[in-house]
Amino acid sequence: MKIEEVKSTAKTQRISAHTHIKGLGLDENGIAIQMAAGLVGQEMAREAAGVVVDMIRSKKMAGRAVLLAGPPGTGKTAVALAIAQELGNKVPFCPMVGSEVYSSEIKKTEVLMENFRRAIGLRIKETKEVYEGEVTELTPVETENPMGGYGKTVSHVVIGLKTAKGTKQLKLDPSIYESLQKEKVETGDVIYIEANSGAVKRQGRSDNFATEFDLEAEEYVPLPKGDVHKKKEVIQDVTLHDLDVANSKPQGGQDIMSMMGQLMKPKKTEITDKLRKEINKVVNKYIDQGIAELVPGVLFIDEVHMLDIETFTYLHRALESAIAPIVIFATNRGRCIIRGTEDIASPHGIPLDLLDRLLIIRTLPYSRKEIEQIVKLRATTEGLQVEDEALQTLGDIGTRTTLRYVVQLLTPAALTAKVNGRTVIKKEDVEEVGALFLDAKSSAKILTQHKDKYMK
């Protein structure tokens, strides 16, 4: 007989390089706290980013751009992600890398425009007639199939909804029963049904059932107040790119040929400028009528020196457009040749006319104390225990090499400690792992010393 352990269905969060960042870590006066919200040091850069966040919130930043410039591993991406966390999840944040524009399927400018549109949100407010409440009964009523045969069909569905004010029984169309099944609605769930379209939205389980033992992490919601039948303001958040994609797909029929046609199409299709202009017209009309509100988000372009002279020129035009997001560039290059030109050198590999438009935020290398604090923070995020002596050793290695290299050593050191039968990382584990792996500087030194032994 085989006994298997039941695994919990709760999702485990994968830890990435910037999982620990929760915000910019500023106090109420906008002054950076030395270590807060997952960020350490870089006080000047964080305070500057705080000013940028305030400008975005007061809608004084649209069509402008910020450049984060500093050596590798000084927290440029971390500051950009912290800005996104400060703005909240309702503001669209679209990250991309400069080299993404070199796609073999679509034009460079199309990739840029697509990401620009992803970073602009539209908040649509609609007043709808809805039936809302906790489901008390859900009974499909079956009748003989009019087509003949032995099968039965659902003629209508009876649903009971309860709110804090009262209860109501509704007799609904069978098509709504299918929507209820798709949303996996059961008795005890809080739902709302739109009176006009018949769309069903499950909001969560009623908190009267919160004591039940549930394997899945269920979201409990309070019992709705007011009547079952009411007018409700529904807010939808979409990006302009979502609207582009929805309108660019061919509205084919349900026959097999149009289905095949959609399958045969290549994955990426270019959205025409004409279509975008039409969508902009409709969006502007909605904004004028007060139905919708534009939410300029953030487009983060990392490794911006990878863009070429053509894309920089296109960026100029895109930044000047009436509908433009806030663009944050990041680069670790000093003075270098602009890609796509033969001999035009410029700071950060960005043309001077575009540099003039940017607010530049500088990030500085970390001190030894800051490296130790960051390593400690990463160890906590990854669930590792590190002795103080081992932390000091990692700090030493960090000042000699780079912060990124030291953070990479944490997991191998934890595995070495485990092999030696410990749960805590000690100094000898760090030294052992440090002797096994090379950092970039050591590797370059060895290459210089033994260059005759390597192929040219």
TrEMBL record:
It catalyses: ATP + H2O = ADP + phosphate + H(+). The gene is LOC107225690. Its EC number is 3.6.4.12. Belongs to the RuvB family. It is found in: Nucleus. GO terms for biological process: cell division; DNA recombination; DNA repair; DNA repair-dependent chromatin remodeling; negative regulation of signal transduction; positive regulation of DNA-templated transcription; positive regulation of gene expression; regulation of canonical Wnt signaling pathway. One of its GO terms (molecular function) is transcription coregulator activity. GO terms for cellular component: histone acetyltransferase complex; nucleus. Keywords: ATP-binding, Cell cycle, Cell division, Chromatin regulator, DNA damage, DNA recombination, DNA repair, Helicase, Hydrolase, Nucleotide-binding, Nucleus, Transcription, Transcription regulation. Residues 62-365 form the AAA+ ATPase domain. Proposed core component of the chromatin remodeling Ino80 complex which is involved in transcriptional regulation, DNA replication and probably DNA repair. The lineage of its organism: Eukaryota, Metazoa, Ecdysozoa, Arthropoda, Hexapoda. The keyword Protein biosynthesis does not apply. This is RuvB-like helicase. Pfam families: TIP49, TIP49_C. InterPro entries: AAA+_ATPase, P-loop_NTPase, RuvB-like, RuvB-like_C, RuvBL1/2_DNA/RNA_bd_dom, TIP49_P-loop.
